[in-house]
Recover the amino acids of this structure.
C-alpha cells in the first residue's frame, strides 16, 4: 500500500531537501509512504485535522498526538 499523499506531501520538497537528505527521504519513504503509512505522524494529523504542518516529521508521534488532541478539543 502507498500513502495517498505520496505524490503531494509537502514534507519532502519543503523540508527534506538536497543530496544530504536523500538517504533520509529514502528511509522515510520506505518506512512510511510505501510501507506503514497509517503510522506516519503526518498522515494521522492530516486525517484527524484536515491539515498538517509542513515541518512535522513522520516519526514525531508525540507531537501528532498533541496536535490531534488540541484539534479535537477545539472542535467539539
Ligand atoms: S510523509 Fe506521511 S503523509 Fe507524507 S506521503 Fe509519506 S506517509 Fe504520507
Amino acid at each position: 500500500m502507498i500513502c495517498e499523499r505520496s505524490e503531494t506531501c509537502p514534507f519532502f520538497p519543503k523540508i527534506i531537501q538536497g543530496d544530504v537528505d536523500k538517504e533520509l527521504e529514502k528511509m522515510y519513504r520506505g518506512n512510511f509512504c510505501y510501507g506503514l503509512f497509517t503510522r506516519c505522524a503526518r498522515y494521522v494529523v492530516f486525517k484527524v485535522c484536515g491539515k498538517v504542518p509542513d515541518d512535522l516529521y513522520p516519526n514525531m508521534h508525540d507531537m501528532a498526538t498533541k496536535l490531534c488532541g488540541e484539534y479535537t478539543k477545539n472542535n467539539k
